[in-house]
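agent> Task received from the user: take the single chain below, predict its 3D structure, and emit C-alpha cells. No templates, no multimer pairing.
agent> Plan: (1) validate residues, (2) run structure prediction, (3) serialize to C-alpha cells, (4) report one or two observations.
agent> Step 1 OK, no nonstandard residues flagged.
tool_call: predict_structure(input=
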Amino acid sequence: MADLRRLAMESKAWPFEEARALLRRYEAGPPAKGHVLFETGYGPSGLPHIGTFGEVLRTTMIRRAFELLSDIPTRLIVFSDDLDGMRKVPENVPNPAMLREHLQRPLTSVPDPFGEYDSFGAHNNAMLRRFLDTFGFDYEFISATDFYRSGRFDPTLRRAAETYDDIMRIMLASLREERQQTYSCFLPIHPETGRVLYVPMKEVNATEGTITFDDEEGREWTLPVTGGQVKLQWKPDFGARWAALGVDFEMYGKDHASNTPIYDGICRTLGGRAPEHFVYELFLDEFGQKISKSKGNGLTIDEWLTYAATDSLSYFMYQKPRTAKRLHWDVIPRAVDEYHQQARAFGGQDAAAQLANPVWHIHGGKVPASTLTVPFAVLLNLAAVSGAEDRAVLWKYLSRHAPGTSPETHPDLDRAAGYAVRYFNDRVKPLRSYRLPDARERAAMADLAQRLAAHDGAAEAEALQTIVYAVGKDHGFEPLRDWFRALYEVLLGAPDGPRFGAFAAIYGIEETVALIGRALEGGLAAP
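)
tool_result: status=success, residues=527
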C-alpha cells in the first residue's frame, strides 16, 4: 500500500493530480468536520443528460484517487437545485401546455408531465438517481427543497441577511447597470401563487431575518428568509451551499468558470472556506453545439446504455476532461473497443502504468478481466453482412473462428454481440449506402477474391491483412487508405470499417469471397 501511494503521488493521471491539490488543502491536519466533502450539483429543469452523469463520475474518480493518497474519510453529495423556478418548458417532454401553466413555480411544485411522480422535479431527480445507481456510485442525495424547508439551510440564510450588503456588492459588480436596479440575491416564493419572484427588496431586516418586497401586483409582503419561503439566486446559492455544507471540492463546466470569483467570494462572506475547483470543457452534439437538458440534444445515458455497457461510457468520460468532446452516436463503438484494449493491457502492466490506465480509475483499481476478444467494430460489420437480427447469428461465426468460445466463457463478447446487432439495425443500417466499384476497384476486388480463395494457410487476421495490403499496392492505390475505403463502401456500405483481415478471418474466407462476388455482380448496391 505504501509503495502504491508513493507511485500515486507521482502519477500524471489527471485524477491523481487533482487529488494531490486537494490533499494540500489539509497539509496541517484533517478538517474539523472529520471528512473531506465532494459535491456535484444538478439542475433538474430537464431530463438529466450525460454531462450531469459525467460530473459525478469524474468527481468519483478524483475521490478514489484521494482515498489512495490519504486516510481522511470522504463523502460525496449530489445536490439537486429543485427549488428553482421553472423558467421555460423543455422541448423533450410531454404535455408542454400543462407545464406552461406552472412557469416560475419551483420544480418540485410543478406537476410531472409523465404522470409518474409527485412533481417534475421529483421525476428528474429519480431519473438521475436511477442512472447513478446503475453505475454503483457511493453518494448522498440532497434535494434543495428539503434543504431549505427542513431548516438545514436556515443558519446560512440568516447569515446572508446579516451580510446582505456585502453579498450585493459582489453580485452588483458583475451585473449590467439595468439589472443592478432590480437585482436581489433573495428570491421570495409567493405565499399565494407559489411562484418564485424576481423582484427588488424594499427592506432586508438582519435582526428579524426577514425581507420586505412588493409582488407583481404591487402588494407588500414580509417573509422570513428561513423555512423555504425564500431562496437564493443561483450564483449566491452556489457559494452559500459551499459554506453551509463545508464543501471541499466541486467541479463544473467551462460555462461557470467566469463565476468562480463570485462563488468563492460569497462562500467566504458567509463564513466558509472556498472549495477546490475543477473546470471541465463542455460536451457538444454532432453539430458542435453545447448539449442542453432543455433541448435534449446530444446522447442521453439511456441511449448510450442501449448500445453499450457502462464501462465504455465511463471510459469516454475519463478521456481529456479539459478538452471539448463531441458526444454523438459514432463515439460509442470506438469507446467500447478502446476500453477493452486498456482492460486487456492492465494485467501485464507494472503498478505505475496501471495507475495511469483509465480502467484503474473507472473501477477503483479492481479491474475485471476483459473477455471481448473481437472488436466491436468487427461485430458491427458481421451484423451487416450476416443480416443478423439477434446475437445468436453472430455466435455461429465467433464460435467457428475461436473454438471453445461461448457466451458462458466470454460474457463481454456475448453482451457486445447483442449490442452490436441492436446498434447496427437501429443506427447503421438505415444509413448504409452501397455503391458499385469503378474499373480499377473491380479488378482489385476480383484479384483479392482469387488470392483469398487460393490461401491455404490458417485463417488468421494478420495473414489475411497482408494479402489485402498486397492487392491494394499491386493495383496502384495511393494512398492505400483509398483501397480500404473502397472495400468498406462497396462491401459494407460505409466509409470506414474494421481491419479487413480481422473481419475476413472471423466472417470466413469462403464467405468473404462470396461477399465480394455478390458486390461485383451488383447484388449489394441498390439498382
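agent> Step 4: summary for the user.
Residues 376-431 form one domain.
agent> Done.
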